[in-house]
Design a protein that fits this description.
The chain has 559 residues and is an alpha/beta fold. The protein is built from 17 helices and 14 strands. It has three domains: 288 residues, TIM Barrel; 102 residues, Helix Hairpins (Orthogonal Bundle), CATH 1.10.287; 112 residues, Double Stranded RNA Binding Domain, CATH 3.30.160.270. The protein is 38% helix and 20% strand. It has an eight-stranded parallel barrel, surrounded by eight helices. Strands 9-10-11 form a three-stranded antiparallel beta sheet. A three-stranded antiparallel beta sheet has the order 12-13-14.
């Protein structure tokens, strides 16, 4: 890499706009969405989709709610041509869906494109040619601006003529000055205005003027300036639908589109999950769900994002990255302990309210995963970096164990040590197994064999007789208290084994009906000040409490 001032790359040109409006605007509704998955996305695949895969993906796009779908480049090859014919001849295109076809401004390609569309009920003819200085110099061998404009004008004139002669019921026209974002604004406007003059759009059938950031060369604010300048300088703006087509070379395709919409655009072209040449096209799903997170209906069916992703990965052979917004495996996952604790608190607070009538306010999650078909089970994952709150969440959510707050650090430490030894993420089953092994129904050195209890009405006390095993030897012990726990502590004290005080006891039920069990938690404190928890689980609530006490006692003996 070069050092110091880098003169190798040209700087993006600032746009001179007085009183620009887009920074103060806000999104209020969804744009017109146009999927280009079957063209842009398909051409970028190492193994392009076959016709059956294209059909499956087309049906998926229709189900998702796209009303405009660019289905290919029919003049490019037989597969593209035959796919379009199959869609039309088998009547697979719903009446409210318009197919879009791309074609360069070249006579024989335009004629081939119209052949592919015979019998279609509606279509958008998408004509394009490159207009930027670099393309004029390199691709078109130094053609002049007038010569480049003539290509666009003659191509439009031919499309108009063939449109008037064909049997397609409803033909719309789209023009793209390819590399718009790298073209002189005045010249891009001049070309588009010349195209409009030939096409003669109306209020009922406006022209679509698509402004591609074919290669992303500037910050998103400059693209927004370009869009606003274009919109405010275009004659008969009300006869044009301004469309955006951003790529992601700088990683800001989404931002450029969102700012472009604020700048006056009406329509967005893109792909599912951002598939496309190089770093990809705009990810329509991300923009749509960004709008949704701000209370705007995106007018796309994204309530089962996992199913959409499955079909996408099947037909494209691409994988959605784990950190991809909204749809990646890890986007609703927290590894950080402080994040896990905050998420748990947010979920707990939300559970106490009516979920349909309150704002979504869960720290670190800006959208409810349930709204897009994701679930809460993947929100907390545990590794050596996780905190006590995450472990407690898993045990509560998956296994019904509502651990006392004071127990969380102890359980978290044990789990994190285990994860550290394993040097990997732990599954929920592994977390539960580790918890049971460390805290639940421990039987050494002290084990409960049987109990017999009687109630003394004279002083409202309980007499507990227990058969136990300690260090391999059986003992019969007896104690008195106001309940089983205190009576058992008294019995241990009489044997001279009590080196602790009882600090906390609580219990709750697990499950319901005939399968209900009780979980009890007991914390004891040693004479040296060590706080230790134990847990007991049993169908009998009294036995659960005694097992929790014994588990705590056994843990203390091992310290």
């Amino acid at each position: 890499m070069h050092k110091g001032t880098i003169s190798k790359y040209p700087k993006a040109k600032k746009i001179s706009i007085k009183n620009r409006t887009w920074p103060d605007n806000e999104h209020t509704s969804a744009p017109i969405w146009a999927s280009v998955d079957l063209r842009d996305g398909n051409q970028a695949l190492a193994i392009p989709m076959n016709i059956d895969e294209k059909l499956k993906f087309f049906d998926c796009l229709v189900k998702t709610g796209f009303k405009e779908i660019e289905i290919g480049f029919p003049s490019a090859n037989d597969t593209e041509f035959n796919f379009i014919r199959k869609l039309i001849e088998e009547n697979r295109i719903p009446k409210d869906v318009t197919i879009q076809v791309l074609v360069q401004a070249r006579e024989h390609l335009i004629k081939k494109t119209f052949e592919s569309l015979k019998g279609a009920h509606s279509a958008i003819i998408h004509l394009y040619n490159s207009t930027s200085p670099l393309q004029r110099k390199v691709t078109f061998n130094n053609k002049s601006k007038e010569e480049i404009k003539a290509i666009a004008v003659e191509g439009t004139r031919l499309v108009k003529t063939l449109s008037e002669q064909c049997d397609i019921q409803n033909i719309r026209f789209e023009y793209s000055p390819e590399s718009f974002s790298d073209t002189e604004l005045e010249y891009a406007l001049e070309v588009c205005q010349a195209v409009m003059d030939v096409w003669k759009p109306t209020q009922e059938n406006p022209i679509i003027l698509n402004l591609p950031a074919t290669v992303e060369i500037s910050t998103p604010n400059i693209y927004a300036d370009q869009v606003e300048w274009f919109c405010t300088h275009l004659n008969n703006r009300d006869l044009a639908i301004i469309s955006l087509h951003t790529h992601n070379d700088r990683g800001t395709g989404v931002a450029a589109t969102e700012l472009g919409l604020l700048a006056g655009a009406d329509r967005v072209e893109g792909t599912l999950f951002g598939n496309g040449e190089r770093t990809g096209n705009l990810d329509i799903i991300t923009v749509a769900l960004n709008l949704y997170s701000q209370g705007i209906d995106p007018e796309l069916e994204l309530g089962d994002l996992d199913s959409l992703r499955t079909i996408y990965e099947e037909v494209t052979r691409m994988q959605v990255p784990e950190r991809h917004p909204y749809s990646g495996d890890l986007v609703f996952t927290a590894f950080s302990g402080s994040h896990q604790d905050a998420i748990k608190k947010g979920m707990d607070l939300r559970d106490k309210k009516s979920k349909d009538r309150v704002l979504w306010e869960v720290p670190y999650l800006h959208i409810d995963p349930d709204d897009i078909g994701r679930n809460y089970e993947a929100i907390i994952r545990i590794n050596s970096q996780s905190g006590k709150g995450g472990v407690a969440y898993i045990l509560n959510h998956d296994y019904g164990l509502d651990l006392p707050k004071a127990m969380h650090p102890e359980v978290g430490e044990v789990t994190n040590l285990f994860a550290d030894r394993e040097s990997r993420e732990l599954s929920a089953d592994e977390i539960f197994a580790q918890y049971k092994e460390t805290f639940v129904n421990l039987e050494a050195p002290l084990k409960l064999l049987s109990i017999d209890r009687t109630f003394n009405e004279a002083d409202d006390s309980l007499i507990l007789k227990a058969q136990i095993e300690k260090d391999g030897q059986e003992h019969f012990i007896e104690g008195t208290g106001n309940g089983p726990i205190s009576a058992f502590v008294d019995a241990i004290d009489k044997e001279g084994w009590k080196d602790f005080s009882l600090n906390d006891y609580r219990q709750h039920s697990i499950g319901s009906g005939s399968k209900t069990e009780a979980a009890a938690y007991v914390q004891i404190v040693s004479k040296q000040g060590s706080h230790v928890y134990g847990c007991g689980i049993d169908a009998n609530i009294e036995k659960a409490g005694l097992k929790a006490l014994i588990s705590a006692y056994n843990r203390l003996q091992k310290k």
